[in-house]
Design goal:
endoplasmic reticulum, four-stranded antiparallel beta sheet, 2 domains, 11 strands, single chain, Methylamine Dehydrogenase, Chain H, alpha+beta, elongated, 19% helix
Length: 174
Amino acid sequence: MKKTLEFKAHDGEIEDIALGPDNKVVTAGRDFQCCVWQQDQLVTGLRWHENLPGIPDKAYRYQACSDSGTFLGLGTVTGSVAIHIAFSLQRLYYVKEAHGIVVTDLAFVPESRPGRELLGGHEAALLSVAVDSRCKLHLLPVRRSLPVWLLLLLCAGLIVATILLLQLAFPGFL
């Protein structure tokens, strides 16, 4: 192996690292930050006190990270587990104290056939392991969105309603 890049990612130790798509890297450090990197450039990051205000950051920190390409799983030293959208870091799921103590590792269920069976109707599944000798499965419900056909139908209805209102307001418009 040959080193290709070196840069300072965190103040202090790095607790965990995960590789993502497009050569992006996610790191969780002892400096209470979780960061997304493209080469040596910071793309975005989470600081504990910004993500969970009101909770003192000196007692808590990100401990483990796992990146599925679509989602980022984070575990903390307090046993909490969260799932974020990868690389925008918008939080979709959070369980405070899912474990009694430190989350040591996380892994997303793969997109294989047995993995899809375990997912059922959920969008993602994250396994968390902690010092409390427990392994837990976290299921992310499917996010609801409007079907494209319904959106097109609503737009067509809006256009027709606008034309009718214009015809009513300005007789002889058409």
